[in-house]
Amino acid sequence: xxxxxxxxxxxxxxxxxxxxxxxxxxxxxxxxxxxxxxxxxxxxxxxxxxxxxxxxxxxxxxxxxxxxxxxxxxxxxxxxxxxxxxxxxxxxxxxxxxxxxxxxxxxxxxxxxxxxxxxxxxxxxxxxxxxxxxxxxxxxxxxxxxxxxxxxxxxxxxxxxxxxxxxxxxxxxxxxxxxxxxxxxxxxxxxxxxxxxxxxxxxxxxxxxxxxxxxxxxxxxxxxxxxxxxxxxxxxxxxxxxxxxxxxxxxxxxxxxxxxxxxxxxxxxxxxxxxxxxxxxxxxxxxxxxxxxxxxxxxxxxxxxxxxxxxxxxxxxxxxxxxxxxxxxxxxxxxxxxxxxxxxxxxxxxxxxxxxxxxxxxxxxxxxxxxxxxxxxxx
Length: 379
Description:
By secondary structure, this protein is an alpha+beta fold. It contains five helices and 23 strands. Helix 3 packs antiparallel against helix 4. It is elongated.
């Protein structure tokens, strides 16, 4: 009985030992099983990369080299040439009785622009009559003094005094006559109405007078301003960083916003020495012959050209895609893949070509018709 009990206890101990060993083996970590799975690198998706099934239906062209002069485009405004703008001056003060010209009218030199009723006329005519009488009396006294002097009745000093008086009276008469002439008054037929005439031929670009308004002569505002618009100024704003492309006496191409298909030539007359403190632009003034189309205040685009030519690429205009206010071309990557690349285009060239200033270089291949490829991609 004791021997059986001992065997039972031995079997139980072995079972407990095996159970403990099994538990230890189950709790031991396996590095290979517990290691994270290997990282898998996914290729980055480029929104400008496309793949098509039949790339042969999109022919390619090679960008060619094109030599061009660097150009700078700026905006400007048509302004009158200040040296050709002449104010109309009324020498007589008074009230306007009639206006014979209006703002915007074309007038000729000597044309009557307005009439002024002025009390200055009566004062000037009175001065003239008095000076004329004084001169007549001084002349009579001089004749008498010369006669008496020849008879020995008066001294030479008396004759000289009479001569001086007559000369002073003549000077006063000349001044009074000139005053009537400046006022436009006929001394033989005086009138209280003064004609104000155009000093030059041109266009009335400013009017500061109306019917029945007062005119203050030289001390007040000018009734009109006449501008000779045969030549006008184009005043442009050029940024500080672009001033090296602009030189005095150089010529620029001028395009009016109202007539974009017409090109005019303007000469750089002056670059003002003071920059705008807010946006750091300089005023560049061009002198341009006016063919009659340029009106004061018109917006223009001026193009300045550099001295040294640059090499850019040239491709067919159909190879450039205009999308979302940006310009793109398609370049082949192989195996049916194409990459859409942004470019900066230039002006149109002969034979349907267009300049590309940046984005590609001469020798690069592009899709000849970018719109066709874009339509295929969008389907």
